[in-house]
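**Protein record**
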Amino acid sequence: MLQRAALDSGDSSRRSKEEPMAEWDSDGTTWDSTPAAESTDSGSEMLLVGSKTRAALKAHGCNVGGDALEALNEVVHWFVEQGASRAVANGRKTVRGHDFMVK
């Protein structure tokens, strides 16, 4: 899912501040704050190169949290699924760049 994992430490004050991450709505044009049921699970294969992703984030002056790469990986999996679905819906087996574009 595209949600931040709740801490297992029992720190309820921290857990209450955690909110679901946003994702695209069904038509793919705007953000929806409620994660969809078809989201990938947290056991997804890592598609990102961790060191390069960390370096890109640090180049923007950001620190990288322990869960950041996993969350970004889930977003990438979601985009892959959406791009593949759009290509198939258009009768193609080839995913093109515009299959990932937001209108």
